[in-house]
Design goal:
alpha+beta, 3-stranded antiparallel sheet, two-stranded antiparallel ribbon
């Protein structure tokens, strides 16, 4: 979870993350490639460490794959 104040400051900006999805679907070698504020980096990395992906496949076998992901900063509607 990000601070709402930080998100408001950087609304519609993107945190760019690089990593490798291993054959078990877990992220390895994760790093922040671009971020509007260093305060966002640790929460992003902590959250991604809990994610599980479907591994890539080659000839029907799971293989590691590089991943470059853009995470947009937004706030839910406050209606």
């Amino acid at each position: 979870a990000f601070s709402a104040d930080v998100v408001r400051k950087y609304l519609n900006k993107i945190v760019i993350v690089y990593g490798v999805v291993n054959i078990e679907g877990k992220l390895e070698q994760v790093s922040i490639k671009d971020s509007p504020d260093a305060l966002l980096n640790e929460p992003v990395l902590r959250s991604l460490s809990k994610w599980i992906f479907r591994p890539a496949q080659l000839n029907g076998e799971p293989v590691a794959a590089k991943l470059l992901m853009g995470i947009p900063l937004w706030l839910p509607n406050e209606d």
